[in-house]
Amino acid sequence: MLFTGQAEITIDAKQRLAVPSKFRARLPEPADPETPTAWYCVPWPDGSILRLYPGVTFENQASLLDDSLTAGSDAAKIDTSLFGFAEHLEMDKNGRVRLPKWHLDLVEMPGEVIVVGARNRLEVHARAGWQANIKDRFREMAALIEKTERTDRRRGDDA
Question: Which CATH code for domain 6-127?
Answer without folding.
Answer: 3.40.1550.20
